[in-house]
UniProtKB/TrEMBL annotation:
It comes from the Bacteria. The keyword Transferase applies. Its EC number is 2.5.1.97. Keywords: Transferase. CDD domains: SAF_NeuB_like. It holds the Pfam family NeuB. The keyword Transferase applies. PROSITE patterns: AFP_LIKE. Residues 295-351 form the AFP-like domain. This is Pseudaminic acid synthase. It is an enzyme of class 2 (transferase). GO terms for molecular function: N-acylneuraminate-9-phosphate synthase activity. It comes from Hyphomicrobium album.
């Protein structure tokens, strides 16, 4: 069970800490190491806290077959392509991992990856990654989860498509294999996802059910869903990053551009800061505004003994007199002394 905040290198995830924003590179490098390094630079400039890679090859994910089972179907950016062809284009060559991670560390970014099989875990261990991510499509791959958990490093698991029973199985596999620091990400595995299909109310439920940190892997367009997730307790936000949607790329259609990622970092932090605590009454910064409430005031000159009436007693701004709730109490009482127009009514002027 996770207790307290989770530490990944210099970053802290959990209560009292701003959302941990992960820029997912995926295949948006478009087959260019130079572009991959520019994505890292853009993530750093945006204020993101981490860059995440994906570690696989087409042959570790599938086989090169053109049969119907191996062709992407449905309303996705990749419809009609074979799995092997898609993954061949989208994968990040393993020899690029070192240079990409070095660039990220130069910027002070946390950098880690999603392995898609055990050989990828072995490779990433040799690079001493500080954490691991399990993709939604792998959250039923319990042997992989166990292998990752056995490293003893923090594990982030996306829950796209998973039933509560499947999430339980994944969490059990992770914890029973040595994972102490666990994060679950609410995720909708459609590309792009719609806000209506995001079901963010699942976030506090996941947190209660599994007693761990919970975040969002967000495939919607824009940043609104991510901001809303923070209001519901998300401590991690993952978003795909592209240099330019117009220039294309396997995930470009549902990825943020650098300026949008910077806005995401700002707005999710503000959402976090706005949560505060359960508090009622004027805050320290509101005390001066109390002067502009309404209160009871003398509306025309009065002589000692005059009766307070609807003409000479008003509920007006500013707020230095008695609260308006005492209007009917004062009405019909007498003035204890001469009162000038504009005098704040207090109990010591009322007989």
């Amino acid at each position: 069970m996770t207790t307290g905040s989770i530490v990944i290198e210099s970053a802290r995830i959990g209560a009292g800490h701003p959302p941990f924003v992960i820029a997912e590179m995926s295949g948006n490098h478009k087959g260019s190491l130079d572009r991959a390094l520019l994505l890292v630079d853009a993530a750093a400039a945006s204020g993101a806290h981490a860059v995440k890679l994906q570690t696989y090859t087409a042959d570790t994910l599938t086989i090169d077959v053109n049969a119907s089972d191996f062709v992407v179907k449905g309303n996705t950016p990749w419809s009609g392509r074979t799995l092997h062809d898609l993954y061949q284009e989208a994968h990040t060559p393993w020899e690029w991992h070192g240079p990409i991670m070095q660039r990220a560390r130069q910027h002070g970014l946390v950098v880690f990856s999603t392995p898609f099989d055990e050989t990828a875990v072995d490779f990433l261990e040799a690079l001493d990654v500080p954490a691991y991510k399990i993709a939604s499509f792998e959250n039923v791959h319990l042997p992989l989860i166990a292998r990752v958990a056995a490293t003893g490093k923090p594990v982030i698991i996306s829950t796209g498509m998973a039933t509560i029973g499947e999430i339980h199985d994944a969490v059990t596999a992770a914890r029973s294999s040595g994972c102490r620091d666990l994060v679950l990400l609410k995720c909708t595995s459609t590309y792009p996802a719609t806000p209506a299909d995001s079901n963010l109310l699942s976030i506090p439920e996941l947190k209660t059910a599994f007693q761990c940190e919970v975040g969002l892997s967000d495939h919607t367009l824009g940043i609104g869903v991510s901001v809303a997730a923070v209001a519901l307790g998300a401590s991690v936000i993952e978003k795909h990053l592209t240099l330019s949607r117009a220039e294309g790329g396997v995930d470009a259609a549902f990825s943020l551009e650098p300026a949008e990622l910077a806005q995401l970092v700002r707005e999710t932090r503000q959402a976090f800061e706005s949560l505060g605590k359960v508090f009622f009454g004027p805050s320290a910064n509101e005390v001066s505004s109390l002067a502009y409430r309404r209160s009871l005031y003398v509306a025309e000159d009065m002589r000692s003994g005059d009766v307070f009436s609807t003409r000479n007693l008003r509920i007006i701004r500013p707020g230095f007199g008695l609260p308006p709730k005492f209007y009917n109490v004062v009405l019909g009482a007498r003035a204890k002394r001469d009162l000038a127009k504009g005098t704040a009514v207090s109990w010591d002027v009322v007989l």
